[in-house]
Design goal:
Keywords: Disulfide bond, Glycoprotein, Golgi apparatus, Membrane, Signal-anchor, Transferase, Transmembrane, Transmembrane helix. It is built from 12 helices and 7 strands. By secondary structure, the protein is an alpha/beta fold. It has one domain: 3-Layer(aba) Sandwich (Rossmann fold). The strands form 2 sheets. A 5-stranded parallel sheet has the order 4-5-3-6-7. A two-stranded antiparallel sheet has the order 1-2. A hairpin with a 2-residue loop joins strand 1 and strand 2. The termini are far apart.
Length: about 350
Amino acid sequence: MAMRTCNISARSLFLFNIITVLVLVTYLVDLEKKIANAKVSSQHNSDLLNTQVNGALLPSSFPSQNPTLFYNRVPKTGSTSFVGLAYDLCSRNKFKVLHVNVSKNAHTMSLNDQLRFARNLSSWDLKQPSFYHGQIAYLDFTKFGSTAPIFINLIRQPLDRMVSYYYFLRYGDDFRPHLIRRKQGNKTSFDDCVKEGQTECDPNNLWLQVPFFCGHHADCWVPGSSWAFEQAKNNLIKNYLLVGVTEQMEEFVAVLEATLPIFFKGSLKLYRQGSKSHLRKTNLKIPPKAETIERFTNSTVWQLENEFYEFALRQFEFVKSRTLNPDLSGKGQQFFYEKIRPK
């Protein structure tokens, strides 16, 4: 009887030891996994913040894994040339380019389409950074509870833009030379159009760049609205990363490359090669006479549109001076941290 009791005690002790070893092994395996995950997390954070200059940590990649850029392009401002750069760079820099085509060339959308577009753009995971472009007025994404994209744009001296568009509808361009344009065959000059008081060259038709930056409010599209003008300026400063001017597209490209290399690395070199720098030229464009220009400059619409252009130009010149060296290369980091306490 004593022998049986002794054997049972030995077996119990043996089983207890085995269970104890298994528990310890499980604990150690779990601990190793936690340590490995901590190392991966640490390495990931190190990759995101892996460069230090003057005490400031520099991110090696864009903060978001899938940044979204939206270029709500204004017609006849050189947008085709600029977008051509994006299409050439997208494979090399690993981002997607998407053209947003609004039915009947409208520049505004219905309320339900605004909601759908805002939700779709901010939640559609393309697994790569994305560059959207389309001729759409500014849209406030936060109004629909969506994350706003990074807005950029280009604008042009307003009367030059209008004259270019006038002749484009009659003579087309070298981008698609065989496409028949809406006014093809109409040889009336812009000067004669103004002299005859035709609707197509009415000064109110200048009212386009201000509305594009103002947005989808009804008053944005009222020609000469001072409220729309102020709203457009406010949006330009608060909601656009960068607004360039057509007359300085090379500098616009250079600032973008210095600021958003995830999209625009190599864009300045590509632009300077010439293959994409002047992709679309109107086949015939006659400069307006002095009396035609004077008639436009006396209109409220031209004055507000021109003032908006000058406002955008001043802001771009300021940004450019702080961002680029004289050779258009990007400047180094201009801030650092110091007196960090406690050590």
